[in-house]
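hey so u asked for the seq, here:
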Amino acid sequence: MGVCVADMAAGIITGAPNRVSGAMALHVLKIMHAFGRILDTGERFELDSTCERPAPLPENLLGL
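ran it, structure tokens below
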């Protein structure tokens, strides 16, 4: 099982919020768009978004 899926399942079981939010997904999408723009134009590009860094995954998430 993948770590992200295990984390989501653990959150559902314990009621903890999902570690990966919509705000993080949007921020990552904007980063990918910025890379493409920089490669096309060679110009500096500043992001207009941020996201909160999630807490580290618990060490025993996968039971290993």
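Residues 34 and 45 are 6 Å apart (CA to CA). The chain has two helices and no strands.
lmk if thats what u needed
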